[in-house]
Write a structure and sequence with these properties.
By secondary structure, the protein is an alpha/beta fold. It contains eleven helices and eight strands. It has two domains: 14-171 and 318-330, Rossmann fold (3-Layer(aba) Sandwich), CATH 3.40.50.1400; 176-309, Rossmann fold (3-Layer(aba) Sandwich).
Length: 335
Amino acid sequence: MRLPPGHPAIAPTTVGVLIVNLGTPDAPTATAVRRYLAEFLSDRRVVDYPRWIWTPLLYGVILNVRPARSAKAYAKIWTREGSPLRLYTGNVADALGERMADKVRVDFAMRYGAPSIRQRLFAMKEAGADRILVVPLYPQYSRSTSASVADAAFDALKSMTWQPALRVAAPFHDDPIYIAALKATAGASLSALDWAPERVILSFHGTPKRHLREGDPYHCHCLKTARLLRDAMGWTDEFAPVAFQSRFGREEWLGPATDATIRGLAEGGVRRIAVMTPGFVADCLETLEEIAIGGAETFAQSGGEKFKAIPCLNDSPSMIDLLEALVAREAAGWI
């Protein structure tokens, strides 16, 4: 572009791709976890109780009790490079950026914690991205995850004088490439064992059951993912039951609960199980501490003998293949 004399320089325009995961504290300490939980649990998409009820409970009780306990859990999974979730998400962004360097500029953000969606959207805009695709790394849509990412992305645009065009990628719970990636991961993990599981639990993050009644498709998306994965693996419903983990609060949540399912199988005589978490694309607190550590302990204490937590897609080649296909589809007309 030929500019008139004295005109400020204009960065070449490009298409940006911002992949977004849930988030993580900066360190496995009570102070860092408190800061993270304050942001997470203040999101009305996550906890939608009236503020006059929730705010005193959050700041008067929860944030004074839970951070120290959660920090101990994070310490069990922390690596030399830091949070596994941030590490895998950053690795995926780098790999996808290298693969699609001639088409898009790739970055990553966390819905809660750092780097924030706002920070990375502004950085992309400054680098010349006039069209940005936001990819929430949640296979199944939920108002407390997918919708919250969209809220944060569009909120960030409010303070921009010149806004980029913005798209938010659709969920990919039934995408054939996603199901194929899950099949490959499960197959590789199970074939490496010197024993065969009697059950493979498909554990998804739980949400309040009320959300289903109010029209959130999350439960339906989880069941469809499970059905397609069973079909791909040749598993029956009995062999691969669905369960829901990470319940928080006293409200009724989706069930059956994963911990109760693990315990019930062991008490019923099942001695060898595996647990797969198809709602998470990267290993994190919920998969590494709650399932791989806590689930294994529950199974052993209830009479079980062999337990395997199947890893998430993480930064595997199949994960990069999946994201490349998603970006090509969702950014159609831009690249």
